[in-house]
Amino acid sequence: MDLLKISFVGILTALLYGLIRQVKPEMAPLVILGGTAVIILAVSDVLLDVTDSVNSMMELAGLEKENVSLLIKSLGICVVTQFAADICYDNSSSTLGSAVELAGRLGAIALALPMIKSVARIAVGLING
Question: How far apart are alpha carbons 32 and 87 in whole angstroms?
């Protein structure tokens, strides 16, 4: 991952967005989506390396794979939701951006429900003796 190239793509995308928004406003969101896609593809190799490192650390620490998997999935939900909401906000759709954020929060909660239920069962077991 070359941070300089990624930064250049981000700046170039922002400049193109500004130019195209003045000439053809309906095409401007596509410029943002294209630039975002290029940046995501550029960092995808690093994401795979991070995933491999997390898996090896899980094995060394003896952590349950299910719990760490839930954590990684919820982190993914947060990142994707933030990207989508930011694109909505950039295109003057704050209501839509808020709805996307709410959906992401609800998705993360729904993902964590099995873990919350198991913690509640353990707590009730400890209380009841």
Answer: 8
Residue 16: per-residue pLDDT: 93
In this prediction, residue 1 carries a pLDDT of: 60
Residues 59 and 70 in one domain: no
> Which of these three, 26, 46, 63, is where a domain ends?
63
SS3 61: helix
Element (H, E) at 63: none
Domain that holds residue 5: 1-63
93 backbone dihedrals φ, ψ, rounded to 5°: -120, 65
The Cα–Cα gap between 49 and 22 comes to 40
